[in-house]
């Protein structure tokens, strides 16, 4: 058995870390990408992108392997005549939505998702959503958010979507007992693992946000205590806090240590006995440690460079440094939420450069100078870097794979070990 180390509950704030801020050209997917996992999560929702053929191609190629008899996302394509102002876009949009909802009465929650073209022509999707919600009252709720590449990067689409849902949540009963909310779209299998653990711990009312169905979204209020499952939900957290909910500060649930700390934050908030907590989590924690151990030989001492992409970078670098002995040289993140990331930052080696935003050419110069053993980056940068002899990992895989919690910790470690294994095999 390995010793169980729990996070210190000290209030001493570590000295703020220096952050390299970059504001140049960036190479990141837009927020529309979030639809790929959100449409699988909320099963009676539909995501209607109001965009161009480029947006439709992005979604189709990113979700290309999945074929649905009744898909849960689509694109209302803005044509040239719309852009030229020759037609009434609002009337066209109403017509598309009416036709969609007449054909698909199973849609209970419709998101109008803004894109670059709808931003450019200043199509007011929030007014359209209000108008269409009134028209379809009782059958379908219509909301809107932006996934435009002008306004959002990659995972910010989920943040914008969930933030748009928060005002729709019912109010919890005044004076009711505290309830726990897990915030962030997780694969169902991972969500179920966490719900089982919280039940074993003895936390009685645990909700997931988003829920799997539109009608089952959790209530929120001052008795809500929430744990962020994803590190890219700054706007959602703020919207929940505006409704009186209280964020439980914790590491993110990656690896044995991150998952332990995340669960522990809830256990402390709900007054769970420490010995009981240790007994409940011990089997999962041990499984995670054993599963991680096999990757340690390959990853220990290896250097890694994260280009900014998904906002998962900081917690993943902490996991790799803390539990696998990797050496993060630079960890880039599109945005740095200092409060949500404080615990993660405190556990990263002091020598690691933290960068926020991107100036892709300068960052690539630093990658070339450092020649890390592994570079985590977007698809567009991976091939050129591989051609220069650098080993890369696609950041997008980390978003699409189940990586949270004890039972996924081994797979998470393996996602980083695999490119190095492949490199070694190719060298022989
Ligand atoms: S929203 Fe903008 S960046 Fe995203 S696919 Fe459409 S045009 Fe491209």
UniProtKB/TrEMBL annotation:
Q: Does the keyword section mention Iron-sulfur?
A: yes
Q: Give the record's keywords alphabetically.
A: 4Fe-4S, ATP-binding, Bacteriochlorophyll biosynthesis, Chlorophyll biosynthesis, Iron, Iron-sulfur, Metal-binding, Nucleotide-binding, Oxidoreductase, Photosynthesis
Q: Which domain of life is it from?
A: Bacteria
Residues that coordinate or bind [4Fe-4S] cluster: 30, 55, 116
What does the Swiss-Prot or TrEMBL cofactor note state?
A: Binds 1 [4Fe-4S] cluster per heterodimer. The cluster is bound at the heterodimer interface by residues from both subunits.
Q: Which cofactors, by name?
A: [4Fe-4S] cluster
InterPro entries for the chain = LIPOR_BchN/ChlN (IPR050293), Nase/OxRdtase_comp1 (IPR000510), Protochl_reductN (IPR005970)
What is annotated about its quaternary structure and interactions? Protochlorophyllide reductase is composed of three subunits; BchL, BchN and BchB. Forms a heterotetramer of two BchB and two BchN subunits.
Q: What does this protein do?
A: Component of the dark-operative protochlorophyllide reductase (DPOR) that uses Mg-ATP and reduced ferredoxin to reduce ring D of protochlorophyllide (Pchlide) to form chlorophyllide a (Chlide). This reaction is light-independent. The NB-protein (BchN-BchB) is the catalytic component of the complex.
UniProt name for this protein: Light-independent protochlorophyllide reductase subunit N
- The organism is Sphingomonas glacialis
Name the gene behind this protein.
Answer: bchN
